[in-house]
Amino acid sequence: MTSIKDVALAAGVAPSSASRALTGHPNVSPELQARVQEAALRLNYRPNAVARSLRSTGTRTIGLVVSDLLNPFFTELARAVEDTSRQAGFSVIIGNADENPGQQDHYVRILLERQVDGLIVVPTAETSPLLHEAAARGDHLVLVDRPAADVDAPSVLADGTDAITELVDHLVQTGRQDLAIITGPDEAGSSRQRLAAFRDALARHGRGLPPSRVRHGDFRRDSGRIELAALMAGSSIPDAVFVANGSMALGAIEYLATHRDSAPPVPESLAVAVFDDLPWFSLLSPTLTAIEQPTAALGRRAVEMLLDRIAGREVSDDRLGCVLHLRESTRGSQGASR
Amino acid sequence: MTSIKDVALAAGVAPSSASRALTGHPNVSPELQARVQEAALRLNYRPNAVARSLRSTGTRTIGLVVSDLLNPFFTELARAVEDTSRQAGFSVIIGNADENPGQQDHYVRILLERQVDGLIVVPTAETSPLLHEAAARGDHLVLVDRPAADVDAPSVLADGTDAITELVDHLVQTGRQDLAIITGPDEAGSSRQRLAAFRDALARHGRGLPPSRVRHGDFRRDSGRIELAALMAGSSIPDAVFVANGSMALGAIEYLATHRDSAPPVPESLAVAVFDDLPWFSLLSPTLTAIEQPTAALGRRAVEMLLDRIAGREVSDDRLGCVLHLRESTRGSQGASR
DNA sequence: TCTGATTGTGGAATCGATTCCTTGGAATCG
DNA sequence: CGATTCCAAGGAATCGATTCCACAATCAGA
Fold first, then answer.
1. List of chain B residues whose C-beta atoms are within 8 Å of the C-beta of residue A48
2. Is there a contact between B283 and A253 if contact means CB atoms under 8 Å apart?
3. Which of B65, B85, B114, B266 is most worth mutating to test chain A (most A CB atoms within 10 A of its CB)?
4. How far are the Cα atoms of A90, A158, A309, B88, B148 from residue A316, in angstroms, in the given order?
5. Any atom of strand D under 7 A from CB of B22?
6. Are A119 and A142 in contact (CB under 8 A)?
7. pLDDT tens digit string along B16-40?
8. What angle do CA B301, B81, B56 make, to 5 degrees?
9. How far is A113 from chain B (nearest CA, A)?
10. B278-289: buried (b, 16+ CB within 10 Å) or exposed (e) per residue?
């Protein structure tokens, strides 16, 4: 491997001068600058970022730990994070927790050991001693998509309360009597928030949400199928289902497609709505009512906040709104609102 | 920051001994081992991977450069790469080239500077001086999904030739007269291969593929819409379209959905098939005929091959087969095969 | 009991770049 | 013209861990 010493030798200067010439330091004579540049080019010199990072502070790298890479929501988030970071001159190391707190901690540890300049985490569980400690030690940390109560770090979240309220209003007004929700694990903050918003909106109509109408999946495809099947297997069947993320929605729709004969028709006997909008929801028949999250904006903001933190600026939490798209799958069954 | 010197000091041993105790070297007395472990724990010591990497060779990191993170195919690939790597004790740095050769080179350079132990690349263009040079310099490199002629590196590809031949046979046998293809850019090896397989299969039936029936998109969503629109705008309209990847298929289906009145009905007047199978293809009506790639296997194999290379073992190219799923969108229009 | 191998430990060199500190020489100013 | 500042450049220290080398102590075999 050709190092800066080789370049310095070839250019007939000291390593320190070579370093200055290559990193564009102010006080370098143009003549020496040119000689070093030429030597570097000729020797095909590639600086060693590991050595640089050791001496100077900062690796110009940020770590991103997402809870499930297979979920398109996180893909888009990762893409936005990557994009924004690159533009700011940072690389991104991605870790995939697979909704597994242990794996999340593994990645947080690895990334901290690698001296990332900052960390963006979608917390799988609401409490994590490691995250707590990292925040306390002063490592730069930003939480995204899900809150984590005991971690002292700024967060940027999608606030779906208004959109969920709007959705519930619509369902009630179009005559739905028996609403159910398939949400995520109780430990995930986003899961709890969506459930709470759903319950509150119902309460505003004087309706309760009995335990049998609350199913907890794990935010992944299979559990959507399983939990919808469970709802459909009961003695009485709800006439509206709200699925709390896109991956579980895929599983739920798959259930309906494979049980076309026995399952209630959508939207006539069963309304379906999803938190998180995916491009293909509009291609189904019936098209699928969904709440769109500002996914890319979440990723962008998270990076901006992290960079602010790194630069020593104060940052505060951010909430971004969601948008409800009413489509065919929640069309009123008896037209009560017309 | 607490360093290994602090730990050594606290344990009353030399830094070298502390290092040995922590990394599990053979010749360390149990007593000293315990004392160092205790001190490390007490001081909450976290080893600095940057310093370690500088001294020892290897960063236990592999770089992955994909051509489009928003494409679910690459997401799944990335997931498999990440998963396999983690199990082998490696982290993954992901770069997203966005189908842009310049951005690809940016990431290859960055990753090499970061001293990744190896690189997995989905080459955006078939020729890249930087990749060529990296391979020539002996950097560990594996290409995946797309070949790159001038790069001396092993590759692992999905070979869709058989599946495409099978698809074309079926289309011809069910009476389709005028087949068209929406493929990717000519510089992408996978795009060229799929086109060639399609053309060869047609030739075997004595059919040609006129230039007007070959549209080149950029493998992304919008271009699927645009190119299908172009095909539908001609004076004569094909009765079958083969879309060469999943992202463009999304755009194409969107076109059909938004032009439901003017577009030819599927499958009666237009058969649609896609290279790359996505979970929601089976949920559409009509369900979508698609060729399934061994996506996760590609990612796994790529990592295995890379690790073999790193370990100094010989590796050779690998081809994995694809599977055709015939669904409703290519149902015979006039039942010619029955 | 004496050699020779083995084992545990400390000290110092090392990885490759950056940066602090010095210094010789040129430029500036009174 | 002498004193002070400024600038370009070299030398050496540094980042934090690993690893080579040396050395003492223990142990085995003859």
1. 54, 113, 115
2. yes
3. B114
4. 22, 15, 10, 39, 47
5. yes
6. yes
7. 999 999 998 888 999 999 999 999 9
8. 95
9. 5
10. bebbbbbebbbb
Tokens of A150: 């005991």
The whole-number Å distance from B35's CA to C3's C1' is 35
Chain D bases closer than 7 A to any CB of the protein = 7-12, 14-20
How far is it, in rounded angstroms, from Cα B10 to Cα B22?
14
With distances taken from each CA to the C1' atom of nucleotide D18, the closest residue turns out to be B55
CATH, domain range A58-157+295-319: 3.40.50.2300
Domains B4-47 and B58-157+295-319 alike in fold: no
How many CB pairs lie under 8 A apart between chains A and B? 121
CA distance A214 to chain B (A): 25
Q: Please give the protein residue whose CA is closest to the C1' of the nucleotide D9.
A: A17
Q: What's the pLDDT tens digit per position in A27-63?
A: 899 999 999 999 999 999 999 999 999 999 899 999 9
Which CATH code of 3.40.50.2300, 3.30.70.20, 3.90.550.10, 3.50.50.60 fits the domain covering A159-294+324-330?
A: 3.40.50.2300
Is pTM beyond 0.85? Reply is: yes
Chain B residues within 8 A of A3 when measuring between CB atoms: none
Question: What are the tokens at A336?
Answer: 């009560």
For residue A157, the one-letter residue type is L
Q: Phi-psi bin for A260: left (phi > 0), alpha (psi -120 to 50), beta?
A: alpha
Beta strands B289-292 and B323-325 are antiparallel
Name the token pair of B106.
Answer: 């940016």
Chain B CA closest to residue A68? B79
Greatest Cα pair distance, chain B, in angstroms, is 87
List, as one string, the DSSP characters of B96-122: E-TT-HHHHHHHHHHHHHTT-SEEEE-
Say what the pLDDT of residue A128 is. 86
Is B4-47 a domain of CATH 1.10.260.40? yes
Kindly list the domain boundaries of chain A, sorted by start residue.
4-47, 58-157+295-319, 159-294+324-330
Which residue(s) pair with A265 in the sheet?
Answer: none
